[in-house]
């Protein structure tokens, strides 16, 4: 039987995209939120931190799968609100799900839960949240994620947490609003840092797609039984015996980690190598007799050359045999290559220099408002200077009661490496980004232009 979905926070930015994708594929979906912005699906109004209100919506909708995206915006200075929604609210959702015998829970966490202000380069899910969180938002997100993962297997519930990074796209009123404000104020020539730091931006439709994949695969059994089953099946076997002589990976496990994956080339495009049977014609006086075949082979034939490339790993690789066995031994009740009880980073897989995406947005805005920006060189501010300016602006803001446009967090955020390894999501969830960065920016600007024409912006130009 098909699942019946309840998207908690379904009126929000990401939640609405998830609802739309579920509707597009013909699923039964309802929304639980504090405000209703669309009327195309059943809506339940309620307080996420009230277990009974959540349970009532679950019973009335007949929900079998919860997708929990509700969260206050990351830029608020309200730790109490973050804790109420992201921690108390998430625990109330878990309790209501167990009470109503809901089978699945997909939780939207954040890539920021592992961020402590230092560079994060190609990190994977093994890195735990820092002891000193960067801010109240990510601290509360980490606590909510922890509660969700601990709830896996509680009653009849299966859970998974996704960690998207730098979400943008149509409907975004945080990143896009900030970039538009800078464009409107003619401050696009300012740069903090040297722009050599790599950053993960993720198109919102890709994040929504990953949530649907996670929901669909939560009940898929693990590739091999967890090691705890070995202890129950073999009389006299102890944990020390398993540690000294763990079972080898199964053929299915080995196939999962050794099959070559296609390149992520939505933005960069495909670059094919010409051969004698598949190539452009080049300069010629008379075309070769098989010209049409050569061109057809080169232009239309899919490039599957990656399938012949071996997957080379070291023992430090997150999906190496050594690493997987270490994860199995660390938690004998869970398989590292299953969906239930695990977390996954979700990005576009296209990390770029931090300031490149804002400049792509401003370039697209030039087409909407031609002549607004005047050509000028970049004014590059070193990180140390940026932190000093942010400190002074925060002091002024504390005295005047106005929020400064530049904060120490924003300076740090724009100057560090923050990109993530999504191979686990690709191999276990089957996740592949559907929309590249350039196309995602174009779609966001098209939406923004439509909002502007209709007069729905709070910022005027």
TrEMBL record:
The protein's name: C-3 sterol dehydrogenase
Region span, Disordered: 265-286
Species of provenance: Dendrothele bispora (strain CBS 962.96)
Location of the 3-beta hydroxysteroid dehydrogenase/isomerase domain: 6-222
GO biological process, one term: steroid biosynthetic process
Recorded family membership: Belongs to the 3-beta-HSD family.
GO molecular function annotations of the record: oxidoreductase activity, acting on the CH-OH group of donors, NAD or NADP as acceptor
A Pfam short name: 3Beta_HSD
Keywords: Oxidoreductase
